[in-house]
C-alpha cells in the first residue's frame, strides 16, 4: 500500500508523444466560394447551361445572406460595446446617470434597463428612480404598464419594497392598471422581507381591483412562512387560498412538501405526499431531494433509501451537503456496501470529485480492505488526482486501525514537505499512534524542519472522516482542555500546532 501511495503522490511523468500520420490537403483558398458551392451540389444529369444558372443563383443568394449576417454581427458588436461603455461610466466614482442620459440625448430601452439594473444592484435605488423618471419623460409613450412593471419587478427582486411602492403609486396616479403578475411580485417581495401585513394588504388590493388571485399569488407567501418556520400560519394561508376558490395546484403541493421537509415535519410532509399521489400529480426532482434530505437528517434509513432510488431516476442535482448526509447515515448504520454504491452513483453523475474519492476510500477502509484501498489509489494515480490531506488522513487512520506502523510511517513521511501540508487530524493520528507503540520522532523532525509546527492550526479534513473513525485521544484531549480552560486561553485567537501540542502535554503556553 505504501508503494501505491508513493505512486500517487510523486510527480507524474508525461506520456510519450505519438506522431500522427500527416494527411496532405489543398488549402481551401485554392477553391473559390462559387466553386465550392457548385461542388457541394448533388450531381444530376441535366442541361449544362441550366446548371450554371442555378449555381450562379445559389452563389448570389449565399453572398447576400453572408452580407446580412455580417451586418447583424457588426451591429450587435457595436451595441454590446455601447452597453459596456455605459456600465464602465456608471461604475466611476461620483458618476451621475442623469448627466450621462442628457449627454447622450436619449437611451434605447436596453441601455436604460442595463443602467437601472446596475444601479439597483449597486444599492443606488435613488439614482435608478431618477434616471427612470427622466427617461420616460422624454417620450409620453414610455409611460406604460410594461415599463412600470419591469422597474417594479427589478426593485422587488432586490427587496427594495419602499422604492417599489413609490413607483407603484406613480403608476396609479397616471391611471395605469396593474396586472395580477405585478401584484404577485409586490406580494412576494413583502413576504420575503417578512412583512406579512403588507402582503395581506396587497392581496386585498387584488380582490378590490376585480382580479382573481391564482395559486401563484400565494406561493411566495407560503415559501416565506416556511422560511420563517411559521408553519401554523402557512397552513392557514393554504386554507385561505382554498376559501376564495383558488385550489392548490401541482406546484403548490411541491412547495408544501419542500417547506415541511426543510422544517423536519416529516409526518406533515408525508401527508402532502400522499395527497399528490392520490391526485396523480408529479413530484419535481428538487422536491424529491428535499424529502431525501429530510429522511437523512433524521436517519430514517428505509425511507431514505426509497426516495434515493426515486431521485436517481431523475436528473436532479444533489448538493455535496446532501451527499455527505447520506454517507454519514450509511456509516452510522454500518451499511458500507451502500456507501460504496453511493460513491459510484454520484461519480456517474458528477465524475470522480474529491468527495467521491473520499467516499470510495472510506468504504474500503470500513471493510478493512487493503486491496480495495490500493485499487482506488491506483485509480487516483491514473486520474492524476491532486494531493488532499483528507485522502492522506483516511489512509493513515486505516493503517493505525490495523496497526501497520511501517506503512503508516511511509504515508506520514510524505506530509510536511513538497507543499503537502498536514492538518490537526494528521497531528492527532501521529500522537495517537505514539500511544500504542509507534515512534513518531522522525515525522516530528520533518514537520519541525519544514516549519509546519509553527503554522496556524486548522482542520481541512472532510467531516466524513471523523464520522467514520471518530475523534482520537489527542483531539478529545484538546476539546477537554479547552472546555475547562480559563478565559485567557479561550480568547487566544491564533493557535499553532506547536502551542496545541504543548497544551495537551501539560507545558506552559504563552
UniProtKB/TrEMBL annotation:
<feature type="repeat" description="PPR">
    <location>
        <begin position="144"/>
        <end position="178"/>
    </location>
</feature>
<feature type="repeat" description="PPR">
    <location>
        <begin position="179"/>
        <end position="213"/>
    </location>
</feature>
<dbReference type="Pfam" id="PF01535">
    <property type="entry name" value="PPR"/>
</dbReference>
<feature type="repeat" description="PPR">
    <location>
        <begin position="214"/>
        <end position="248"/>
    </location>
</feature>
<protein>
    <submittedName>
        <fullName>Pentatricopeptide repeat-containing protein At4g14190, chloroplastic</fullName>
    </submittedName>
</protein>
<dbReference type="InterPro" id="IPR011990">
    <property type="entry name" value="TPR-like_helical_dom_sf"/>
</dbReference>
<keyword id="KW-0677">Repeat</keyword>
<dbReference type="InterPro" id="IPR002885">
    <property type="entry name" value="PPR_rpt"/>
</dbReference>
<dbReference type="Pfam" id="PF13041">
    <property type="entry name" value="PPR_2"/>
</dbReference>
Amino acid at each position: 500500500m505504501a508503494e501505491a501511495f508513493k505512486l500517487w503522490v510523486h510527480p507524474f511523468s508525461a506520456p510519450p508523444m505519438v506522431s500522427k500520420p500527416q494527411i496532405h490537403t489543398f488549402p481551401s483558398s485554392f477553391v473559390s466560394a462559387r466553386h465550392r458551392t457548385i461542388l457541394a451540389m448533388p450531381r444530376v444529369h441535366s442541361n449544362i447551361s441550366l446548371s450554371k444558372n442555378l449555381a450562379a443563383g445559389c452563389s448570389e443568394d449565399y453572398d447576400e445572406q453572408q452580407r446580412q449576417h455580417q451586418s447583424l454581427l457588426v451591429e450587435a458588436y457595436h451595441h454590446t460595446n455601447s452597453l459596456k461603455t455605459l456600465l464602465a461610466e456608471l461604475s466611476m466614482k461620483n458618476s451621475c446617470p442623469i448627466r450621462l442620459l442628457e449627454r447622450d440625448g436619449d437611451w434605447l430601452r436596453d441601455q436604460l434597463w442595463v443602467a437601472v439594473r446596475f444601479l439597483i444592484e449597486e444599492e443606488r435605488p435613488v439614482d435608478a428612480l431618477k434616471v427612470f423618471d427622466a427617461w420616460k419623460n422624454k417620450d409620453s409613450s414610455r409611460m406604460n404598464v410594461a415599463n412600470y412593471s419591469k422597474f417594479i419587478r427589478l426593485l422587488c427582486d432586490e427587496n427594495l419594497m419602499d422604492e417599489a411602492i413609490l413607483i407603484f403609486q406613480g403608476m396609479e396616479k397616471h391611471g395605469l392598471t396593474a396586472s395580477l403578475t405585478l401584484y404577485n411580485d409586490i406580494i412576494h417581495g413583502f413576504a420575503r422581507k417578512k412583512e406579512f401585513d403588507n402582503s395581506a394588504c396587497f392581496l386585498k388590493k387584488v380582490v378590490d381591483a376585480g382580479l382573481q388571485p391564482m395559486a401563484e399569488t400565494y406561493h411566495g407567501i407560503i415559501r416565506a412562512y416556511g422560511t420563517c418556520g411559521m408553519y401554523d400560519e402557512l397552513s392557514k394561508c393554504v386554507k385561505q387560498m382554498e376559501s376564495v376558490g383558488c385550489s392548490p395546484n401541482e406546484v403548490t403541493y411541491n412547495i408544501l412538501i419542500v417547506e415541511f421537509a426543510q422544517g423536519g415535519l416529516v409526518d406533515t410532509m408525508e401527508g402532502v405526499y400522499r395527497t399528490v399521489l392520490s391526485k396523480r400529480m408529479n413530484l419535481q426532482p428538487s422536491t424529491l431531494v428535499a424529502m431525501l434530505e429530510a429522511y437523512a437528517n433524521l436517519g430514517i434509513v428505509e425511507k431514505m433509501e426509497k426516495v434515493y432510488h426515486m431521485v436517481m431516476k431523475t436528473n436532479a442535482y444533489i448538493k455535496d451537503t446532501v451527499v455527505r448526509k447520506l454517507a454519514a447515515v450509511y456509516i452510522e448504520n454500518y451499511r458500507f456496501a451502500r456507501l460504496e454504491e453511493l460513491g459510484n452513483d454520484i461519480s456517474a453523475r458528477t465524475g470522480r470529485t474529491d468527495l467521491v474519492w473520499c467516499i470510495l476510500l472510506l468504504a474500503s477502509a470500513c471493510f478493512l480492505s487493503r486491496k480495495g484501498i490500493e485499487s482506488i489509489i491506483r485509480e487516483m494515480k491514473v486520474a492524476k488526482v491532486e494531493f488532499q490531506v483528507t485522502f492522506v488522513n483516511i489512509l493513515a487512520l486505516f493503517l493505525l486501525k490495523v496497526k501497520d506502523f511501517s506503512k503508516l510511517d511511509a504515508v506520514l513521511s510524505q506530509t510536511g514537505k513538497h507543499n503537502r501540508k498536514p492538518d490537526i487530524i494528521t497531528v492527532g493520528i501521529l500522537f495517537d499512534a505514539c500511544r500504542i507503540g509507534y515512534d513518531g520522532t522522525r515525522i516530528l523532525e520533518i514537520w519541525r524542519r519544514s516549519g509546519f509546527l509553527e503554522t496556524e492550526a486548522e482542520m481541512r479534513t472532510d467531516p466524513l472522516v471523523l464520522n467514520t473513525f471518530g475523534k482520537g485521544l489527542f483531539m478529545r484531549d484538546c476539546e477537554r482542555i479547552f472546555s475547562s480552560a480559563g478565559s485567557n486561553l479561550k480568547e487566544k485567537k491564533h493557535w499553532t500546532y506547536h502551542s496545541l501540542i504543548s497544551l495537551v502535554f501539560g507545558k506552559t503556553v504563552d
